[in-house]
């Protein structure tokens, strides 16, 4: 089977999302660019909690399904548009974690990343994407356009969240941190006065993206 190792990685990441309560057995989807022309993507209508590598669909970046026995995710159009517009990334993770998804359905859909340095470094400023019906070209257009300026995390109004990365692990890590930041944002509201990082501190963290991090 072509790209078996990469298929196993996609399936493993999807099962991990489910195990950690970041999505439901039917919700969420993952795509991974394996080369300049091909993309792996999770299928529709299969249990995400027990998915295996043989159930991961292979497509061209132009949308041709090379595994006709499998029905690709309903959100395939969104994934392909993101991957075509963001040549700097290879992985897209979309899921419906409780706290982050809740924030997409509020009047102030903002997840704070100015409270913890890790959140700021990994997520920058998550962007808000106006509502469009799931599985439609409109949703794909909205999300890919919103991510075109360099954002790495998106809140999809009344829907869920999405993160991207150069690797599957990076995209997964960002989604996990986004959910934790959402939980902190919710708990802060009306309970305690949050102490945000200063603008100087935020700028220092942002500057780390242009400098190698040396472990000591």
UniProtKB/TrEMBL annotation:
<dbReference type="Pfam" id="PF00596">
    <property type="entry name" value="Aldolase_II"/>
</dbReference>
<dbReference type="GO" id="GO:0046872">
    <property type="term" value="F:metal ion binding"/>
</dbReference>
<feature type="domain" description="Class II aldolase/adducin N-terminal">
    <location>
        <begin position="8"/>
        <end position="186"/>
    </location>
</feature>
<dbReference type="InterPro" id="IPR036409">
    <property type="entry name" value="Aldolase_II/adducin_N_sf"/>
</dbReference>
<dbReference type="GO" id="GO:0005829">
    <property type="term" value="C:cytosol"/>
</dbReference>
<dbReference type="InterPro" id="IPR001303">
    <property type="entry name" value="Aldolase_II/adducin_N"/>
</dbReference>
<protein>
    <submittedName>
        <fullName>Class II aldolase/adducin family protein</fullName>
    </submittedName>
</protein>
<dbReference type="InterPro" id="IPR050197">
    <property type="entry name" value="Aldolase_class_II_sugar_metab"/>
</dbReference>
<keyword id="KW-0456">Lyase</keyword>
<keyword id="KW-0479">Metal-binding</keyword>
<dbReference type="GO" id="GO:0016832">
    <property type="term" value="F:aldehyde-lyase activity"/>
</dbReference>
<dbReference type="GO" id="GO:0019323">
    <property type="term" value="P:pentose catabolic process"/>
</dbReference>
